[in-house]
User: What shape does this take?
Amino acid sequence: MTSKEIKIAYQEFDAIDELEAKDRELAQAAVEATAQAYAPYSKFNVGAAVLFEDGVIVKGANQENAAYPSGLCAERTALFYASASRPDKAMVAIAIAAGQDGHLCETPATPCGACRQVMAQYQLKSGLPMRVLLVGAHKIWRFEKVDDLLPLIFDSI
Ligand code: THU
Assistant: This one.
């Protein structure tokens, strides 16, 4: 028997201003996208912004439904829109922000498991690491690739 350990590295910033220019733009786009959430049930507004290799950014926000499972998280709304609208372009980063009543969460909200798996799929499709920025009011976390949020990713078929 061999014991093994997986370590996750990420960077923490205290403000969006500390990010490099493109990441700052992406983080701001995710914050803006929170205003486009349709979340009449949870009142939890999530915004996501996807960056393509050519610099284009597309946004998405969570969309809820009276039949709860029919709604969709912000990340998947943004990723599916990104892939459906620009199928031949590589995605290189995603930023996620969340808040309530117009205020961002203090600590970054972290993506659900299903969204992590979908991020992993588009990272695989792009063939490039997909950076993940989680944007809170006073902390921003940057992961260099989806694997850091989803160790031992399923991509075997
Ligand atoms: N939500 C997201 O948009 N992304 C996540 O990763 C987790 C949760 C949304 C779904 C629902 O509209 C609300 O947040 C409360 O769960």
